[in-house]
Amino acid sequence: MASPVAQFQVKPIFPVVPEGESLPFYAFTNSSVAMVAAVVVAAVFFWLATRKRAMVPGRWQSVGELTFEFVANMIRDNVGKEGMKYFPFIFTLFCFVFIGNMLGMLPYSFTFTSHIAVTAAMAVFIFVGVTIIGFARHGVHYLHMFFPHGAPLATAPILIPIELISYLSRPFSLSVRLFANMTVGHIMLKVLAGFVVALGAFGFIPFIVVGGITVLEFFIAALQAYVFTILTCIYLNDAINMH
Amino acid sequence: MPQFDPTTFASQLFWLAVTFVLLYIVVSRFAIPRLGKVLEQRQKTVDDDLDRAQQLKAETEVAIATYEKALAEARAKAHDVLRETQDQISKAADTRNREVAHNLAVKIKEGEDRIAAARDDAMTQVKGIAAGAAVAIAQKLAGLSVDEASAQAVMTSGKETA
């Protein structure tokens, strides 16, 4: 039986590179296929959703509008009107992570969101972007993030390091949460599915469990996309409105 | 774990950047404007319909107000007419009453005057007759000749012992 982590192997499709050797940056891999597929799925979905642009929406249009409103409301509720400037980015982020997670649920597919390199890159981009927005809007005043108004000055030596660490740990928690959730879920599915064969006549027991876990994984795939997006909104809110 | 194999990082990051930017273009240039427009149009239609309904409602209210005003005016006019007529009738009745009362009063007065005159007449006549009778009685009984004038005077002066 293949190792449960073999599914995460990034395999080059073009150009052919011997195993163990470093891939060139442009190497098109199974991960790249999944990413391109996500873009294609999103593009097709939006094309279907906005093909008719009817006053009374059809099925695809309804789903498209719901997604649009869902993300728009997320920003409005968590950031406010000013956050709508970043709506295209947040919407892209949500679609990318959501479709990436969902495509990963297809058998034999590749889950690019289960790779720390991908999630960390997104998280660091968000972290840097949010920090730049914060300093651009509030200038040096943004440093008040690390020392809340009204706190006694004596608490500064404790409070500032705590706030600083919690701020700096954001990209780690953001990236590890998504990567770990996707990785663990897929490993668990693989291991449990292996039991179906290994247990022979009693294989139906893990089979039922795998069925249940698959449903759970779909739920987690959607939930983690939501969590990733809403945390981005919350960080953006801190940068725009400060807390 | 393949996730921690740094040989694949460059490729993953490169394709992440490429596909993310592509998706960003799809979303920001294609999906958001089109979906936003549909939603906006629907909102506009709903708002317009609501506005029209509001306008029609206002018109209805104006019509109702006009109708009610006309009704109130008609009612007031009817009331006025009624009161005027009543006034006229009561005034006419008053005049008539006063006239009748006046006529009656005049007639009563005339009658009373006539009665008083007749009484006075009768009184003077009674005095004359009494004086005459007194003179005659005095003549017959005492042989006194009393002229009628003094007898009359005695009569009017009241009781006097003979």
From TrEMBL, chain A:
GO CC, alphabetical: plasma membrane; proton-transporting ATP synthase complex
InterPro entries the record matches: ATP_synth_F0_asu, ATP_synth_F0_asu_AS, ATP_synth_F0_asu_bact/mt, F0_ATP_A_sf
Domain of life, per lineage: Bacteria
Sample GO molecular function, one term: proton-transporting ATP synthase activity, rotational mechanism
Stored Pfam families: ATP-synt_A
Compartment(s): Cell membrane; Membrane
CDD domains: ATP-synt_Fo_a_6
Membrane topology: Multi-pass membrane protein
PROSITE patterns: ATPASE_A
SUPFAM superfamilies for this protein: F1F0 ATP synthase subunit A
Keywords attached to this entry: ATP synthesis, Cell membrane, CF(0), Hydrogen ion transport, Ion transport, Membrane, Transmembrane, Transmembrane helix, Transport
Spans traversing the lipid bilayer: 25-49, 86-110, 116-136, 187-209, 215-236
Cited HAMAP family: ATP_synth_a_bact (MF_01393)
Family classification: Belongs to the ATPase A chain family.
Its job: Key component of the proton channel; it plays a direct role in the translocation of protons across the membrane.
Protein name as catalogued: ATP synthase subunit a
Species this protein is from: Insolitispirillum peregrinum
Species classification: Bacteria, Pseudomonadati, Pseudomonadota, Alphaproteobacteria, Rhodospirillales
Protein encoded by which gene: atpB
TrEMBL record, chain B:
Keywords for the protein's UniProt record, in alphabetical order: ATP synthesis, Cell membrane, CF(0), Coiled coil, Hydrogen ion transport, Ion transport, Membrane, Transmembrane, Transmembrane helix, Transport
InterPro entries with a match to the protein in the record: ATP_synth_b/b'su_bac/chlpt, ATP_synthase_B_chain
Keyword field contains Ion transport: yes
Main location group: membrane
GO cellular component terms given for this protein: endomembrane system; plasma membrane; proton-transporting ATP synthase complex
Pfam families in the record: ATP-synt_B
Membrane protein topology class: Single-pass membrane protein
Transmembrane segments: 12-32
Record has Transmembrane as a keyword: yes
UniProt feature coiled coil, ranges: 39-84
Subcellular location: Cell membrane; Endomembrane system
A GO molecular-function descriptor: proton-transporting ATPase activity, rotational mechanism
HAMAP family: ATP_synth_b_bprime
Subunit structure: F-type ATPases have 2 components, F(1) - the catalytic core - and F(0) - the membrane proton channel. F(1) has five subunits: alpha(3), beta(3), gamma(1), delta(1), epsilon(1). F(0) has three main subunits: a(1), b(2) and c(10-14). The alpha and beta chains form an alternating ring which encloses part of the gamma chain. F(1) is attached to F(0) by a central stalk formed by the gamma and epsilon chains, while a peripheral stalk is formed by the delta and b chains.
Stated family: Belongs to the ATPase B chain family.
Purpose: Component of the F(0) channel, it forms part of the peripheral stalk, linking F(1) to F(0). The b'-subunit is a diverged and duplicated form of b found in plants and photosynthetic bacteria.
Protein name: ATP synthase subunit b
